[in-house]
Specification:
The structure holds 2 protein chains of 2 kinds.
Chain A lengths: L2 E3 L4 E5 L4 E3 L2 E3 L5 E7 L6 E6 L5 E3 L5 E5 L4 E6 L8 E11 L2 E6 L3 E6 L1
Parallel strand pairs in A: 2-12
Antiparallel strand pairs in A: 1-4, 3-9, 5-6, 5-10, 7-8, 8-9, 10-11, 10-12
Chain B lengths: L4 E3 L2 E4 L5 E6 L6 E7 L6 E7 L2 E5 L6 E5 L5 E5 L8 E8 L7 E2 L3 E5 L1
Parallel strand pairs in B: 2-11
Antiparallel strand pairs in B: 1-3, 3-8, 4-5, 4-9, 5-6, 7-8, 9-10, 9-11
The chains are: A mainly beta, B mainly beta.
């Protein structure tokens, strides 16, 4: 069975500082990996995805993530955080199988940005 | 292009009642999935519908059921509501065979 772990429940960074959110996954085959962002009371917005190919993927809002198969990780990074980035971030692994297209999410990391 | 829309946005129900939540999928998408997100947790997969049939189910009891209509819209029904059913319910649409999913804004259900 697939699983996702986000070790950091809360992270606080200063505006303008760099950011890295950690994600570790467990999946038997080549994973489909995603990062979503959720503002309070809102749905999920897709930031970026990895299916295959280049292990460094670029997303929206200046975010990027690197797939490291040897470490089973898919960490999200941003070089300079803006106050509007404060939100909850979810890493997810997708399975394409006979049961359809199911996403398994981590518990999320809440990002707070200090002025 | 129309995104995923859900209704209602909020509702309050009493324990033991039944509730129906609705979802319109993104234009061109033929698969709908439902997720439950309890407060402070990540979303959990409830089930998925394709061609008007359940096409996969997570670890949820049978009192959680659904429908998909010919226009690909969907309903989530929950019978005999329990306090622990209080959560944000998210609908996601996709194309069958494509893992990427697009989410609606969710329906916040409170059971009292």
């Amino acid at each position: 069975a697939q699983s996702v772990t986000q070790p950091d429940i809360h992270i606080t960074v200063s505006e303008g500082a760099s950011l890295e959110l950690r994600c570790n996954y467990s999946y038997g085959a080549t994973p489909y990996l995603f990062w979503y962002v959720q503002s309070p009371g809102q749905g999920l917005q897709l930031l970026l995805k990895y299916f295959s190919g280049d292990t460094l993927v670029q997303g929206i809002k200046g975010f990027e993530a690197e797939f490291k198969r040897s470490q089973s990780s898919f960490n999200l990074r941003k070089p300079s955080v803006h106050w509007s980035d404060a939100a909850e971030y979810f890493c997810a692994v997708g399975a394409r199988n006979n049961a359809g297209n199911m996403l398994t999410f981590g518990g999320g990391t809440r990002l707070m940005v200090k002025p | 292009e129309t995104g995923v829309t859900q209704s209602p946005t909020h509702l309050i129900k009493t324990r033991g009642q039944q509730v129906t939540l609705r979802c319109s999928s993104q234009s061109g998408h033929n698969t709908v999935s439902w997720y439950q997100q309890a407060l402070g947790q990540g979303p959990q997969f409830i089930f998925q519908y394709y061609r008007e049939e359940e096409n996969g189910r997570g670890n949820f009891p049978p009192r959680f059921s659904g429908l998909q209509f010919p226009n690909y819209s969907s309903e989530l029904n929950v019978n005999a509501l329990e306090l622990d059913d209080s959560a944000l319910y998210l609908c996601a649409s996709s194309l069958q065979g494509v893992v990427e999913a697009f989410f609606g804004q969710g329906t916040r259900l409170t059971v009292v």
